[in-house]
Amino acid sequence: MTPALLVIDPINDIVHPDGKLASCAAAVAEHDVLARINAAVAHARAQGWPVIWVSVGFDNPAREISPRSKLFAGARGGAALRNNTWGTAFHEALDVAADDLFIVKPRINPFYGTKLAVQLAANDVDTLLIAGVSTTMAVQCAARDAHDRDLRVIVLTDACADRSLVHHQASLDALALIAELRDTSSLATLG
Fold first, then answer.
1. Which one of 44, 49, 59, 142 has the fewest CB atoms closer than 10 angstroms to its CB?
2. Is residue 16 part of a domain?
C-alpha cells in the first residue's frame, strides 16, 4: 500500500471567517477541522507519504469561470478565488511545507485540468486519503474520481467540513458506498 494525503481547499476565501466566500468557515472552526487536517498531515509525513495541497483559483476569473457556473458565480467578478492572493492562500493555521506537492484546480474536481493523476502515478500511490472542504462538492468529486481510477479511497471524516453538519453527514453517507470512512484518530491503524 502506498498512500497519499490529499487536502482540498482549506484556503482563506473558503475557511477563514474573513474569506470572500467563507462558506465553510463556521463549521471548520466549530469542529476544529484545521487541527485535524494538521494531525493527518503530521501522520502522513511521519510515514513518508506524499502530502498534496489543493486550492481552487483563477488567474483571470472573468475569463476562466463560465457564466453558467452557479457555484463560481460569486468569484466571476474577480474579487474571490484569485490566484496568488490572500484568498487563495492556505489558512495560516495549517502546517504547509515547501516540499509538499501543490495543485491549483480550475473547477470543483481536483483531477480536472490538473496534474494530480500524474503526481499520484509518479509517487506510485494506490490509496488516497482525503481531507478538506467542502464534503458535498470537492471531497465528493475527488473521492468519486479516485474510485473510478481504481484507487483505494479513505475519507477522513473529522478533517472535512461543509456549510452545515446535515450536508456533511449526507455526503459521508453517500461516500460510504465507494470509500472507507475514518477519523484522524484511526490513522495509526491504517493497513
1. 59
2. yes
Q: How far is the first Cα of the chain from the last one, in angstroms, to the nearest whole number?
A: 8
Domain total in the chain = 1
Contact 40, 178 (CB under 8 A): no
CATH number at residue 49: 3.40.50.850
DSSP β-bridge partners for residue 11: 90
What are the φ and ψ backbone dihedral angles of 94, each rounded to 5 degrees?
A: -85, 145
Q: E strands, the chain, where?
A: 3-8, 51-56, 101-105, 127-133, 152-161, 180-182
Whole-model pTM? 0.96
Residue in the structure block whose three cell numbers are 511545507: 97
The series of mean pLDDT values per 10 residues for the chain, 191 residues long, is 96 95 92 97 97 96 89 82 95 97 97 97 97 96 98 98 94 97 93 59
53 with 96: CB under 8 angstroms? yes
Q: Is 142 in contact with 169 (CB distance < 8 Å)?
A: no
The answer to whether residue 191 sits within a structural domain is no
Q: Is residue 49 part of a domain?
A: yes
